[in-house]
Specification:
Distance between the termini: 47 Å
Number of helices: 6
Helix content: 25-40%
Largest sheet: 7 strands, parallel
Low-confidence stretches: none
Strand order of the largest sheet: 3-2-1-4-5-6-7
Strand content: 15-25%
Structural class: alpha/beta
Order of helices and strands: EHEEEHEHHEHHE
Radius of gyration: 17 Å
Oligomer: single chain
Length: 230
């Protein structure tokens, strides 16, 4: 069955990998600031900035079977260097903008629909320099579990919590071979995640194969959250 799936973002990184895996078998709608990265993908593009715009839901089909919110940030600094404004900015992009869009699309979510959000391994595993992003992503995890409870059994809601993944957001952390090797060695599986590694879980959560999964935070993190090999 072809599903109608809306991506907020989806032109880069994990979201784009999910779109690439799904566009041939589903009807994909992508709301993003630009259509860069979509040149070879059969999808409906909707100009949209999550931090400022109101989503024009009239451009969407009558019912949505899947929803993915991709925008996020990686703001890694010592706590003493993070102003309150930075905390507010991270919360606005990662959480409040997501809540705004969820409110706009919820009336269109079909029975049996699936919603997928993104967190970070740093929420469940304390890591230095992650106070701002972990706080914002932690809000997503709590929100998703409550939303899943409220809308069960009609709508499933799950969260993916990746570790460091080779996306444009992580360019600064993976800018040379030495950094890549150092970051790979921090993971039990000795590699940095690829967008496709995480996207496979996202496409699974949007599929009927995950129809008995809701309210979960799934770690896709090379073993970082549960294994200590040192």
């Amino acid at each position: 069955m072809r599903k109608n799936i809306l991506f907020i973002g989806g032109t880069h990184g994990i979201g784009n990998a999910m779109v690439t895996q799904m566009y041939e078998s589903h009807n994909i709608y992508i709301a993003a600031r630009t259509n860069e990265g979509l040149e070879t993908i059969d999808a409906t593009y909707i100009p949209f900035d999550a931090t400022t715009d109101t989503l024009d839901t009239s451009l969407l089909p009558p019912a949505l079977d899947g929803f993915v919110y991709c925008p996020g940030s990686i703001n890694l600094k010592p706590f003493k260097m993070l102003s309150l404004d930075i905390f507010k900015e991270d919360m606005e992009l990662n959480f409040f903008s997501m809540v705004k869009v969820v409110k706009e699309v919820m009336p269109k979510m079909a029975d049996g629909a699936s919603m997928v959000f993104f967190s970070t391994v740093a929420v469940g595993t304390g890591m230095p320099y992650h106070t701002s992003v972990a706080a914002a992503k932690g809000a997503i995890e709590g929100f998703a579990k409550s939303l899943a409870a409220e809308y069960a059994p009609k709508i499933r809601v799950n969260v993916i919590a990746p570790s460091l993944t080779d996306t444009p957001l992580a360019n600064r952390l993976l800018s040379n071979d030495k950094k890549r090797e150092m970051m790979a060695q921090r993971h039990p599986l000795k590699k940095v995640g690829s967008p496709e590694d995480v996207a496979h879980i996202g496409t699974f959560l949007l599929s009927d194969n995950s129809s008995w999964i809701t309210g979960q935070v799934l770690g896709v993190d090379g073993g970082t959250s549960t294994l200590n090999l040192h």
